[in-house]
Design a protein that fits this description.
By secondary structure, this protein is an alpha/beta fold. The chain is about 40% helix and about 20% strand. It has 11 helices and 14 strands. Strands 1, 2, 3, 4, 5, 6, 7, 12, 13 and 14 form a 10-stranded mixed β-sheet that branches. α1 (about 15-25) runs parallel beside α2, α7 (about 230-250) packs antiparallel against α8 and α8 runs antiparallel to α9 (about 280-295). The longest helix is centred in the last third of the chain and has 24 residues, at about 250-275. The protein starts with a strand and ends in a 14-residue tail after the last helix.
């Protein structure tokens, strides 16, 4: 059994493997550590590149593109390791990025998952959108980060260098115990991509597990490597998956009110796209809502099973009001300005 498996899920990402894999191999050495690339049926030369340049890297070849959620589920079933480190192919790691987190988790059995501090590869003094210094969730399901509210990313001045309990750890660089990953059911395959790590972390937190950001570990993320932020496909996945996540995890007494409010907020978001003449994004929101309602009945069993294991209805790391209101109405642009409102 391995101690740590660093698993990179790849789909047509040869250019990122060429750029970043060497650093991952160099800085991921340790007793019983292994770097593994799981390939989601790439059509570029990724596999050929790996076999010729990195024969020491284990390769798992999947038969089709299962997305982030399904791809990792399929790959991790084939890996025997105490810890998984799920790493995006567009991440530059740094020296000693693994050991501070593994040492912490070794010493605290209740910590199920962690993330490093995630900075922007193209501006290394600034936090990166997908994780920053740890993820949180507001009352209506909007994710934000210590260091990033909506698209406003703060500069890293050491203000968030303390390890801290968070609500969700970024899938760009997710450290998680194998036992906890599978006990919580892994990623939800239906999500395909986007928000699956938040959904998984919510399930873990509901079971009484802790999730931390450990800024002593640091990585740099390019971001937007699969779908850019303006992609209608990304809009569809984000809106649909967010509703499915809320439906699966919210306690019964909160469900109807929060879902109704969220649908109204989505309508306001659609109006914003209308102002910008982004008609395909409006169509994506409509499609996301339609699919949510058609899929909801199939989620009843998932919801029931999840809530049967849930012991904490309102886990640490949730903002007890609306981040939309705080950001757009109250002009709160930094995490430090809203931190006191998080439970």
């Amino acid at each position: 059994m391995l101690k740590v498996a660093v698993v990179i899920l790849n789909y047509n990402g040869k250019h990122f493997l060429e750029k970043f894999l060497g650093g991952v191999v160099l800085y991921s050495k340790g007793k019983d550590y292994q770097v593994i690339v799981a390939d989601n049926a790439s059509t570029d030369d990724s596999i050929k590149f790996l076999s010729s340049h990195y024969p020491e890297v284990r390769t798992i070849i999947l038969d089709k593109n299962y997305g982030f959620a399904g791809g990792y589920n399929k790959a991790l079933e084939q890996i025997d390791s105490e810890y998984f480190v799920l790493l995006n192919s567009d991440v530059e790691v740094t020296e000693n990025w693994i050991n501070p987190i593994i040492q912490l988790m070794d010493n605290h059995a209740n910590i199920a998952a962690c993330q490093p501090k995630i900075l922007a590869y193209n501006n290394k003094s600034q936090f990166e959108h997908a994780g920053a210094a740890g993820g949180y969730l507001d009352k209506y399901g909007y994710p934000f980060c210590r260091g990033r509210l909506f698209n406003k990313c703060e500069y890293d001045k050491g203000q968030y260098n303390a390890p801290k309990e968070i609500f969700w750890a970024s899938g760009a660089a997710l450290f998680i115990r194998k036992e906890d990953f599978f006990n919580a059911g892994g990623f939800d395959d239906t999500f395909f991509a986007h928000m699956e790590e938040i959904d998984l972390c919510w399930r873990l937190k509901g079971r009484g597990k802790s999730i931390l950001c450990v800024p002593e570990s640091k990585v740099y993320h390019v971001g937007g490597g699969t779908l850019n932020s303006e992609s209608p496909r990304k809009t569809y996945l984000n809106f649909r998956n967010n509703l499915l996540m809320l439906y699966k995890n919210l306690p019964e007494e909160d469900l109807d009110k929060i879902i109704s409010t969220r649908l109204m907020l989505d309508f306001i978001a659609a109006l914003q796209f209308l102002i910008k003449f982004k008609f395909q994004n409006i169509k994506s929101i409509w499609k996301a809502h339609r699919e949510f309602f058609s899929t909801k009945k199939d989620y009843n069993e998932k919801r029931k099973e999840n809530l049967n294991y849930t012991t904490i209805k309102h886990p640490i790391g949730m903002l007890q009001t609306s981040i939309v209101y705080l950001f757009f109405v109250k002009s709160r642009r930094k995490y430090s300005q809203i931190e006191h409102l998080i439970n």
